[in-house]
Input
Amino acid sequence: MNPAVVKLKEFLSELEAESHFPTIQAKAEHIGQINLVKSAIGQLELCEKYGITGSSLVNILPETESPNFCYLTVHENESSNPEHWEEVTFDGEQVLLSGGDLIVRK
Output
């Protein structure tokens, strides 16, 4: 396991153990901090699961003029002719991508 995740989980345990706060505002800020740490743990675990590193390439698909426009993923079958291309499905499902979606390359 990533050492940063281990440290964040330890810190999360410490935060969750706190139960007395001088004001409601202090308690709300504390809950916000817990949520931030949980989010950071989730993000690091996701990156670790998929091998995403600081040097991974992240691109945003361009926005389009038409809301009916979408991007598809295809396997080109070593051909520049779209008639020979095959749509790639994920877990048997078609995935339609839209402008603003992220593409991550490890």
About this structure: The first helix runs from residue 3 to 17.
